Amino acid sequence: MSRDASKEKRIFKRNEKGQVSIFLGICMTVILTMLAFIVNIGLFVKAKINLQNAVDAAAWSGAAVQARQLSNIGYMNWELRNTLKEWMFKYYVLGQMGQEWLKYPNLNESSVDFLLKPFGLGAADTKDKFNLPSICIHFGSPNNICSIYDVPGLPVFDTVGLPGISERHESFLASIRDIKSKDCSERGIINLETGLLWAYGTGSSSFSDLPAVAAHRIGAWIEALEIGFRMRNLESIVNRPPVDGQMCMGGAGCTDVNTLQSEFTRLPYNERPIKALISAYRNLGGGTIKDEDSDDDNKDIFTNTFRLTEIPPEPHVVDPGSLSGLLIPQDATISGKSAFEKYYLDLIAFPINMATLYTNFQVKDGVTSSVASVGECQGTRTAIPVPGYIHSFAKNHEVMTYYSVKGEAKYVGMFFPFAERGGVTLKAYASAKPFGGKIGPRLFGRLETNKVVARSEVARTTPYVFGLDMQGAGGFQAGELVPFEPPASPGMFWAKNGLSVIGGTPSAGQLQYVIPNLLYDFDSYGDLDIHGPVLGDWMTYVKRRGSGGVPGDGPLPQEDRGLLNGKQYKIFRANLVPPTGGILSVANIDASIRNVRRPTRYEAMNYMIPTIERGGDGNTNLDSIPIVKNIEQSGIKKYHIFAPLIHEDSLYKQMASIEEAAKAFLAANDTSITSFIDALKTVRDAILAEAGGDPTKYQDSANLIHDNNDFNTPGTCVSMNDKFEFFFNAESEGTGCGGKITPLKQLIQEYFAPGGNGQQMQLIGKFDFLLYYESEYADDGNFNGEPNSNHMRTFPTNAELHGAYTPGPRTGSPDTGAFLLPFSGNDNGIPKRNFYSTKFVSTSKLVKGGDTTISFSQVPVYKEKDDMGGQSMFGSEASGPSMDFKNKLEYTGFLDEFGTAANLDF
Asked: Global pTM?
C-alpha cells in the first residue's frame, strides 16, 4: 500500500470519529428534547388537571353552600307546620274543653262528634246543624252552656190579672230577661276575643276582660307572617346574583376576595362566591409560592393568574303580584339586582283564607214544654276570618337550584414555544347542585300565578282544609252558621268545591274561605288511606243537618278527614297535659304545646326536621350542626335557626320595612274583614226580628253584637263589631275602646320593633331575635299526655327523623340505612341525612340549546315535576310533556368558544 493511501485512511478514521460524536450529539439532543417535551406536556396536563380539580372544587363548594341554605329553608318550612299544629291544638282541643264527650275514653275511631247537644229531648229544630269545632270557653262552673245547642229561656206564664201584681211580675221578668240575655251575648264576646288572640295575639292579652287561655302565646297569623318574612330573606340569600365578571384572590381587572368579604356587613350573601373561590385556589397547587405576597421572582404564574367566573343562569323574573312575589318589597334589591329576578330558587307561598269558628250566643224567644219563653240563649257558630294565612311554602321545580363556574389561568412551561410570553390560557368548567332534600310537601295547587286552589293529585289538600255545604237552608234563623249564605247564592263566603279559589295574592280577586284542619300522624300506613279523595272531589265538606235526608244526629261518613277523624283526634288530643286541680295553668298549656310541636313520623316523611344530639351513650352523631344551634334546657329540645328578619343587608332594612310590609299585607285583605262585619249586622237584625215588634225587647243584646256605631267614637267598643273594627282598622290605641284593646297595627309595630317592649325582649332571650328564629319541642323522654288516653306515643328517634337522603340496598346498605363495613359487616353508623347533599351534574344539560339527545323529563336530577299541580316525572313518556326548567345557563359570553351549544360534551 502506498504512503498516500495509508495517509488517507488515517484521515478517514479521524473523520469517522467526529461523525460518531456528531451522531451521538444529535441523538442526545433529540432524546433530551423529546424528554423535555414529554415533561413539558406532563406539566401541561398536570396544570390542566389541577385547574379542573380546582374548578370542580369551586362548583362543589358553591353547591354545598346552596345545599346548606336550602336545608335552612326546609327547617323553617317545618316550623310553619309547627305554628299550624299549635293553632289547631288551641282550636280543636283547648277550644272544645267544654264538650265532655270529647274526652277519653268517649272518642271513637271513625269520626269526631262536635255536634252540640240539645237541652233535654229537644225539638227537631233545636238540634245542631253543623258538625264543626267551635271555640267556647267554659270556666268550670256547674252550668256548662258550651255543650248545649239551645239554652232554654224564662217561661212566661199567664198572670192572675190582679192590679199591681201583673205589672210587678212583668217588670221582674223583663229585668231577669235583660240580665240573662246580656250575659248570653257577653259569653259570645269572650269566645270571639279568645279566637282573635289565638290567631292574631302577640303574646300579651289585647283584651282586658279575657281569661288567660293561652293568651301568652304568639298568634298563628302573626307567627306565620314572621316566618314568611324570614323565608323570603333566606330565599334572597340563595338568589344572590352571580358575581359580574371574574373573581380572583388579588390583582387587577377582577373582583378580589377582600371586596367580596366587605360587600355585606353580616349576612352571608357572598358565602357562595367566596367559598367557591377559596376552594378553587386551595386546590390549584403551587405550595407556598402561590401566595400573592410572594416576591415577583418566586410567584407561581399559574395560580396567580387564576380567575373564577360564576356562569349566570337566565333569571326567572316573577310578577310582584304573584305567589312567588308575595311579601317581597317592591323596591328590594340584591347586590344591585331586583329581588324579583330569581336565579337559583323560586319559593311559592301559599296564603290561605282560613276561618275558625267560635260560639256566638244570641237571644231569641221560644217554646219550652208548650210554654212560651223569652231569653233563650242560642249557640251560633260564627266565623273569625283569618285571611292570607301563610300556610306553607313550596319550591317551584321549574326553577332549578344549581351552580356552574368557569375557571381559567395562564400556563408557562419549561419550554414555551409560543409567541405570547405571558402564557397560554387554560380553561375548565364544572357544575354541581344540591340534592336529596326537600323543602316540604305541596299541599295546595296553584292556578295561574296568583291563586291557590285544592291540589287534585293524591288529594293532598283533603285533610288540611274543608268547605261548607249549606244546601237545604232557608232564610237565616238562630242557630245557622255566620256568615250565612242564602240558597240562591252559594259560594259567596265558603268554598263550595275543589275548584274554589281559597287563597292567593290581592290581585287574585274574590276569594273563598275554608276551615283549617290537620293530618297529624299515623301508627301504620293504613291509617293514611282514609285521608284520600272524598267522593271524587278534592276537598272535604261539612254538610248542613236537618234537611235533604241528612240526619241531625251524629257525624256524616265523609266527615272523617284530618282531625275530624277519630283516630287522628285521639293521638292529637293525647298531647294535652292534665290540668292541675281541674284548671289548665300556663305551665300545663306550654307543656301541652311542646308535646304538639314534637316531630312525628308523618312529618319525617314529608319535611326536614332539625335534630339535636347531646352525645353520651348511644350517640349517633345526628345533630343538625352547624345549621341548628342547641340551647341547653332540661327536658326540652330548644334551638335557634339562622333566619334573618331585619338587617341592613336583607330585604327588610329596618323595622319600618317590616311594619310597612305587614300593614300592606293586612290592608290587602280588608274586603274579607268588611264582609265579616257586615255578617255581624245580619245577626243583629235577626236578634231584633225575634222581638216580635217590640223595638226595645232585645235591644241591649243586639247592640252587644252590632250597634251601628263607628269604632272611632271615643269611649265606645261595647259591641262586637266595634271591637272587631277597632282591632283591625285603628292605627293606635289612643282613646278608642276605652283603652281596652290594642289594635293589630300597633301590635305589629311593637312586635317587630327590636326591644320595643317587655314581650319583645323576652322573645329575644340571649340570641338576636332579628337574625335567629327560636323554637322548642318536648324531649323524647318527657311525654306526659292526657290520662286514660290509651294512646301513649313513642316518638321517632333522631335516626328515624332523618328523612332526606337515605342509603339503601343499591348503595350497599340495608333498609335501615346503616353503613356496614364490607368485610366484617360491622355497623359503622347511620349515614342517613336530614339535610341537602351535593352532587356533580353535566353542564351541557343546563345550557339553552345544549345536548338534546335525552329529554329533560327523563332525568329526575334535572327536572322533578312538570308543573305545580302535575305528577312526578321519572322517565315515563306517559308522565306528560317535557317542561324544561326556566333558569338555564347563559350561553352567550360564557361558552361561545364551543360554537353551538350542541357541541358541549361535559
From this structure: 0.86
